Amino acid sequence: MAKMTFKELKTRADDIFQRYDENFAGKPRATRSLELLDGLIGELESLVEEARAGLNGGRDPAMISMLETARENLEVYQKEREAIAQAKAEGPTTAEGTELARRANLTFGRYHRHFAGEDRRTRDLGLLLELIEELDETLKAMKAEEAAGRDMGPNPEIVERNLAMYRREFTAIQEAQASGTRQEQADTLATLANGQFRLYREHFAGKGRHTRRRELLERMVGELQRILGAMNELERQGLDSESNLRNIGIVEENLKVYATELKEIDKAKASVTASQLAGSLGAAANEIMAEYREGFAGKSRSTRSLEKLSLLADQILEVGLQMRALDEEDPSEVNTKNLGIVLDAWALYESEYRRIEEAQGQ
User: What is the rounded average pLDDT of the residues 329-353?
Assistant: First the structure.
């Protein structure tokens, strides 16, 4: 049999990666097929052997990169097989329980990306409060499932531990941001304000208003108001700083812009039907998923940008949260289907973030 060309091997590898992502990435493990995964593992093992033979001691950069990615994915698939087997051995859970566990894991992913190992002085307290509220709601729903006699496994205990940790971290971040000299505190506040301005550029500037989550902008307004209050307090304490005075003016101006934007978002949302909104959210999700495929699917993890992937994860979750709210208020077959796709994509991005970290030794 003739050896496969690099193009043929690459096409075959991409097909395996795509089938894995579609059937396993971010999906509840207890419901996954070990037989299907064994098939993918066998195909990838065969491909790795053929790629090694094709390389034959050579230094073709494209072949080496493809082989490296295939090996990394093979290791991921093998670990995932062990995790699926363990999940199946632990016994079945309800569909609601499975969904709540995924909801908790997505929140854990957001926390990991934005808080784990980061300088507390630079962290967004508004975001952490949102994560605490999300996890608290998830925990209450899990306990309600347990009270109804449905087995939730170890999930409520895991959520409870993380929730307690997030609350402790909230206090620790508050203390860190209030530490240092007055000028150091002023510098910290300027950094925090810039973080909110960046969020506006990433999630609102130039975007269709009716597809924006007003709760995110409300959170940003609340955080900027807190920052502004702390800046003014430093002035009252005697801080003599032209930069702090200038920053107070900048924050005040942006607060005015955001207040106007909230009104415009409300007008835009009021002008569309639930069906139109579902379609627009689906289109927004498609754009994000296309950007992910272009920048990450099948690419060597060691060369990918964690910052870019984190932004895509945040953008897809913003769409997902709005779809979830719409599904609760005015359910439709189209939106429910799209919500499932978006949640799977969000879970994939969170999972891929960890894998890229591992590949880059972080």
Answer: 92
